[in-house]
Design a protein that fits this description.
heterodimer; A: 255 residues; mainly alpha; MetI-like fold; 11 helices; 0% strand; elongated; B: alpha/beta; Rossmann fold; six-stranded mixed β-sheet; four-stranded antiparallel β-sheet; 37% helix; globular
């Protein structure tokens, strides 16, 4: 409770300083002011445009996140268990992994146009690699001794997968999911920045085009709020799925 | 020997590493009778664990054969159960769920599983900790859970590789008493690897002493102790004292040689 109060105090202090500095220390054109940003947000909320645009961005990020993580999970488990296939594919995967995925956006635009599908595809591609690599490492890290001991109990491949490999890789999978959240939003927002007339990214671009600094900040706050929500959802799912776990794991694969 | 269950016939095992070939064991011929407890002692790296792995079918001998119940071991030997120093519990499963793993694998019904697990929990004395996760248990309780899981599917032979090595002396003694009691009652055959000579003598019907790498059998000693024995009073038993002394004498030259090899 103490911490929460301190946080609120810090935030209030920063906002007050910002408000005071705007127009005195720094030109208002560059940093706008909290009251103007709040008024902008209020306007957007009241005329419904905030929820419309945020809803578009959220659906793109969410769909891309789900699609990418499901594919990443399945292929990660598959390659984690099929040693030869993984070895054959390794250089190709690493080459593709090293490519900045947002650079694929022009290709996606050529293929599927500038609609929401393009943003979903971009997001899914980015998320796929993060979840895939984490899942793959997780499956590979399963103790072979443990697998042997369970096999001596008469386990077939399905038992091994469901009772040993998947639960044991789950920590890694969730690590992948957690670091994917911001990247899912990168996919959606960058897609919108490049080509769109709806979504928070589009709102951002149009505000910038009108030299509307308050609008830019308001759109950024919207994006931050989305990221926070998505993050909390993943953390909630993680706690539900891994009740047995009390400690966090730090060995995540990062870009 | 009457009714040999496990037979190693002229077994050797060479491990290929990137730089060299390492001969782990060589010329091992050993029979273990049904219901017998055989302990394997010897210096580190003399291939004791390799023999267990071969009995379980996890490793193939380079030369020679391993027979189990008169049949060549070829692939996972499902009549054996394995337990090592690392208890290999599933950390995401509670005590009862861990014990249930082999039963689930073998297609038991939920009711049958619940009943058997409850019996096993009582057998190893884990009442009150049924719902605890391994991370919440002490070392001894984890071992007891692993033992209960091993006994759950009732493998004919228990392959135990220093299962109690990480426990303190009292806990180890109580686990040994439990193991001995259970294995006699359920007439299990046991191959038991240990570094602890007292443990080797306390549990064994026969003790197999190994030479250092490449591992060969130095001597097989039959225990003078009765099969029904009281481990709590064993320390004062003359049979126990003389056999441990005999084993120490066998291993002392190895220790001495190691000391000589070292630059002090």
């Amino acid at each position: 409770m103490h911490v929460v109060l301190l946080r609120i105090a810090l935030l209030a202090g920063l906002l007050a300083f910002w408000e005071a500095a705007s127009g005195t220390l720094v030109q208002e054109f560059f940093i706008s002011r909290p009251s103007a940003i709040f008024a902008k947000l209020r306007g957007w909320v009241l005329d419904g445009s905030f929820f419309y645009h945020a809803g578009i961005t959220a659906s793109e990020a969410l769909l891309g996140f789900l699609l990418g993580s499901c594919l990443g999970l399945v292929i990660g488990v598959l390659l984690g268990r099929a040693r030869l296939l993984a070895e054959v594919l390794d250089p190709f995967i690493m080459a593709f992994y090293s490519l900045p995925k947002v650079a694929l956006a022009p290709l996606f635009i050529l293929w599927i146009g500038i609609g929401m599908t393009m943003k979903v595809a971009l997001t899914a591609t980015i998320v796929f690699f993060l979840v895939f690599l984490n899942t793959y490492s997780g499956v590979r890290n399963v103790s072979q001794e443990l697998v042997a001991i369970v096999k001596l109990m008469g386990a077939n491949e399905r038992d091994i997968l469901s009772k040993v490999v998947l639960p044991s890789a789950l920590t890694w999978v969730f690590a992948g999911l957690r670091i994917s959240v911001p990247y899912a939003l990168i996919g959606a927002v960058v897609g919108e920045l490049m080509a769109s007339n709806k979504g928070l990214g589009a709102l951002l671009v149009s505000a910038q085009g009108q030299f509307d600094t308050a609008g830019v900040f308001a759109a950024l706050i919207g994006i931050t709020a989305l990221a926070y929500l998505l993050n909390s959802a993943v953390k909630f799912a993680e706690r539900k799925a891994m009740r047995w776990k009390t400690v966090d794991v730090d060995d995540e694969v990062r870009i | 020997m009457i009714d040999p269950l496990i037979e190693f016939r002229h077994v050797s095992k060479v491990f290929e590493t990137a730089s060299a070939q390492v001969e782990a064991v060589t010329g091992i011929t050993l029979s273990v009778a049904r219901g017998e407890i055989v302990t394997l002692v010897g210096p580190s790296g003399c291939g004791k664990s390799t023999l267990l792995n071969m009995a379980a079918g996890l490793l193939k001998p380079t030369t020679g054969e391993v027979f189990y119940g008169g049949k060549l071991v070829d692939g996972y030997n499902l009549r054996t159960g394995y337990m090592t120093q690392n208890d290999h519990l599933l950390p995401w499963r509670s005590v009862v769920a861990n014990i249930a793993v082999p039963l689930e694998i073998n297609g038991w019904t939920a009711a049958a599983i619940a009943e058997r697990v409850q019996m096993l929990v009582k057998l190893v004395g884990l009442q009150g900790f049924e719902q605890a996760y391994p991370s919440q248990l002490s070392g001894g309780m984890r071992k007891r859970t692993a033992l209960a899981r091993l006994l759950a599917y009732d493998p004919e032979t228990l392959l135990l590789d220093e299962p109690f090595a990480a426990l303190d002396a009292q806990l180890r003694l109580s686990m040994q008493i439990k193991l001995l009691d259970i294995s006699r009652r359920l007439s299990k055959t046991i191959l038991f690897v240990t570094h602890d000579l007292d443990e080797a003598v306390a549990l064994a019907d026969r003790v197999v002493v190994f030479n250092p790498r490449p591992g060969t059998i130095h001597k097989v000693v039959a225990s003078p102790l009765a099969r029904e024995r009281d481990l709590l009073r064993l320390r004062h038993d003359p049979g126990f004292v003389s056999l441990t002394a005999e084993l120490w004498d066998m291993l002392a030259p190895v220790v001495a040689a190691e000391l000589h090899g070292e630059t002090v």
